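Hi support team,

I'm filing this because I wasn't sure whether my run with manganese (II) ion finished correctly. The job status page said complete, but I'd like someone to confirm that the output block is well-formed before I use it downstream. Pasting the exact inputs I used:
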Amino acid sequence: MKKQIEKVLTPPAPHMVGDGFRVHNFFPGGYGLGLKRMSPFFLLDYNAKIEFPPSTHQRGVGVHPHRGFETVTIAYHGKVAHHDSAGHSGVIGEGEVQWMTAASGVLHKEYHEKEFSQAGGLFQMVQLWINLPARYKMSAPKYNSITPANMGLYELPESKGEIRVITGEIKGVRGPVSPFSPITMANFYLKAGATIEFELPENYNTGLLVVEGSIIVNGESAEADNFVLFKNTGTTIALQTDSGAVVLLLSGEPINEPIAAYGPFLMNTQEEIIQAYDDFNHGRFGHLED
Ligand code: MN
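And here is everything the job wrote out:
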């Protein structure tokens, strides 16, 4: 049975994150979907395509902490550089994914890569906050940089495009990331006239972000920058595109635990939020130069 569609959401009004990211927050804030509607995905900030003028200043977000979850950044256009207090740094280029497990806590900063800043250009990104089950919230931070060459590759028949699997499994192809709770995430790069059908568990919270082009999914149409939210009924998704499209799939088993969320921290209880602020204020997240 096909998964029914709950809503096709157009992008809510954007806001700036620092001076480098102009994002549409689809959840949890944008549409009042609630803190758990897309669990284990807690937050989706989508920087729809925007042209940044050349700048000698690297736009972005200065040093800030995270605890209790993972941040996943996907670059579609432009390049983002980052540094964290665990000693990791790197550049997320087009088609690449940074999967950072903040867990017990890191400080990091995220900003436009130097040469991209100087040249300016088209910028399009996704940042996701993925919740961690309680038993993993205080585990050690880690960092995973994923290029298209590392991703699971499913090629559509007749060269109609490909699916790049980041984690979980689609059509027998697995992605390289081992998540802390069951998640399926992939980018679909579909050429004009492509059709594809695949299965996901009925209970997984599931959505599709149309990054490029337009699609027809389970009988409904969605344009670029729309987010398609599915009901938790049925297992089949059938996608087709006349124009060609790029689509991000998010699907995961809900984490049925209490949520206490405040600022950059995502915990289970208010006491743990207070502890996070106390640890941050006492320098227990390590050190990172601004
Ligand atoms: Mn951050």
